[in-house]
Fold Amidase.
Amino acid sequence: MEHNFPTAEQLAAALRAGEVTSAELTDEAIARMERDDDATNAICVPDFDRARAAARGADRARARGEDRPLLGIPVTVKESYDIAGLPTTWGMPAHRDHMPAEDAVQVSRLKAAGAVVLGKTNVPVGLQDVQTFNEIYGTTNNPWDHRRTSGGSSGGSAAALASGFGALSIGSDLAGSLRTPAHFCGVYAHKPTLGLAASRGMVAPPGPALPVEHDLAVVGPMARSARDLTLLLDVMAGPDPLTLGAAYHLTLPPARHERLRDFRVLVLDEHPLIPTGSAVRAGVGRVADALADGGARVERDSPLLPDLAEAAVVYTTFLFSGSVAHFPVEAYERLQARAAGLSTDDRSLDAARLRGMVLSHRDWIAANGLRELHRHGWRRFFTEFDAVVCPITPTPAFPHDHDPDLMARRIDIDGVGYPYFDQLVWAGLATMPGLPATAVPAGRSPEGLPVGVQLIGPMFEDRTPLRLAELLEQTIGGFQAPE
């Protein structure tokens, strides 16, 4: 019997009951990878010998009476995390031989919890795309349709989960990099509250693994069930022991509610700056109907909601402010000249991208002031609501597009083309203020592609959207293996 598609929770129960060993689970996962991954290309750095040794060690530990949260569970890790003895390249050819000497803090936490690391999953170059491909490891295909992207930048992890390559994976999210691949591949992901999970060792090569606090970017869990997200988040959450962890311990508040009928939810399916495709609108509608049928209070509008257009502009400005830090001086000066030519009335996303690339510290402080106003607006909002249901991107997975000029790419929304990066505005809704957001499957498009939505919750109340995700999984179903 294969154990590739059960959840981590189910596998843990089988291991505790003695129905299977970690060595057997690991061999099954490796066999599936060796049989199926040529078509998907999700696993870019296998680590099978050490995985088998770790699995045997997990079985010995269980025989001694140990029972850690992930003891013996096969998992994968996004390529961008340092693992001692394996390359960390971020898909950049210049760093194909970069070999970290120690594990990232999250890899250490996985191993301490007893997980068996099968290997690393593919990423886009520099983690800077909504797709996953690079010159070193090639292209990761969507398991549902190999002509389409698995998403990015955690596209390898999402494709691995959908293909049955391990029960859990860890990724990261700055512009939807956990949520978009989950949406495209039909799995679950959680973008934690900003700062909730330490990220040391998730650093672009050849940089040192320092315990820095990132702006916008987070690390988080991916899984095939909502409950597994909570299981893995409990392993990942907590401050870095080298900094805040020297003085503080994490205690997340419980979910606000346990029953669907007690939730107060705002449902959004329209954004002022980009349309939402019909397949995604239908997915949002399915979730809204399930909430209403379950007795939840469902609203479609609220004066408490922070301004979506302004939020998208502020987010875009921050997102692109770090993208040119290592550009040559001449290229940077050309961008400054272009930005100086913008009309002061131009509040478009194109203008926000350009202004962000040449943002001065003075302008950053002004933008951060706007962000703090939005954060406070969300605090007021969450006194009346428990969660927001909204799209992750405007479309299901789209066909591979490897045009090297990212600004020239277009995203097709129901037959009309829009700027490629405009699709990030929904991801930015949670990222800019640092809110937690859980990506959940919400059915399929007419073409049979997965469609997901995100559940955005109050800051540091990650258990609230995660609990809502569990209740929705019980109501509308969850992960389905690709056909």
Remarks:
- Residues 312 and 425 are 5 Å apart (CA to CA).
